[in-house]
Specification:
The longest helix has 30 residues, at 47-76. The mean pLDDT is 89. This protein is α/β, with parallel strands linked by helices. It is built from 8 helices and 5 strands; from the N terminus they run αααβββαβαβααα. Strands 3-2-1-4-5 form a 5-stranded mixed sheet, with helices on both faces. The protein starts with 13 loop residues before the first helix and ends in a 6-residue tail after the last helix. The chain is globular, with a radius of gyration of 19 Å.
Length: 235
């Protein structure tokens, strides 16, 4: 059975759509900023079109990136997980974004909840373990809900806490925080969950840990990531 291209009924080329989605999700730009950048390149689209493209194709691109990486991550992400949560305003009300990364900075999971308690921590950890297996070490802060959730999962002995042990995940929040400020606010919990999932996959795809590699290696991996992006959903 031949898989139908998701771009089939769109007059705009897939290259332009991929570029618009990448600019909006990867960088702290508003929809109108993306519209202006595309206009500078001779591409005349409205910001509402950019909104439609990101809502339609963003999850598709993220799913394909995740599908290609998840098997590799299952092989290398079980050594150590760093888990943390941050508050995010949704229509003026406080919600919580739970995130987990591995020891190399890959974002493994992002889950939005209304509460910050044992049930929410349990929901997040179960989803994380279902997709990525069980880690040898889980680094958290001293929030009591982590301890209670890990105890129920029979993994309490794997928990590690310490003043600076979780700096990696604390720093990994920064790209999302910059992106959040550019968007000004989220109106629905579902839209926050969608954007957090898509942003995580795009961040993983383009994150090259440039401070740990030489300039030549960084240029090669950056070019490879961009080339892979241009082939997403091409069939």
């Amino acid at each position: 059975m031949i898989k139908q291209s998701p771009f089939k009924y769109f007059k705009t080329s897939p290259e332009v759509i991929r570029l618009a989605v990448m600019l909006y999700v990867r960088f702290p730009l508003s929809l109108r900023n993306v519209e202006d950048l595309l206009h500078e390149r001779g591409i005349d689209v409205s910001h509402e079109t950019v909104r439609y493209w990101w809502n339609r194709f963003g999850p598709m691109f993220a799913a394909e990136i995740r599908r290609k990486r998840v098997q590799q991550l299952r092989a290398f992400s079980k050594w150590k997980w760093h888990v943390d949560e941050v508050f995010v305003k949704v229509n003026g009300k406080r919600h919580y974004l739970w995130r987990a990364i591995d020891h190399e900075g890959e974002v493994l999971e992002a889950v939005v909840t209304k509460r910050r308690n044992k049930a929410a921590a349990l929901k997040f950890l179960k989803k994380l373990m279902k997709r990525h297996g069980k880690a040898e070490t889980v680094v958290t802060d001293r929030f009591a809900s982590y301890r209670a959730a890990l105890k129920e999962l029979g993994a309490l002995e794997k928990q590690r806490t310490g003043r600076w042990l979780n700096n990696r995940v604390e720093n990994s929040h920064l790209p999302f925080r910059r992106r959040e400020r550019a968007m000004q606010r989220f109106r629905h919990m579902r839209s926050l969950q969608k954007f957090a999932a898509v942003h995580s996959s795009v961040y993983n795809h383009f994150n090259q840990e440039r401070s740990l590699t030489s300039r030549d290696t960084f240029k090669l991996t950056r070019a490879a990531a961009l080339s892979e992006w241009r082939q997403l959903c091409s069939g």
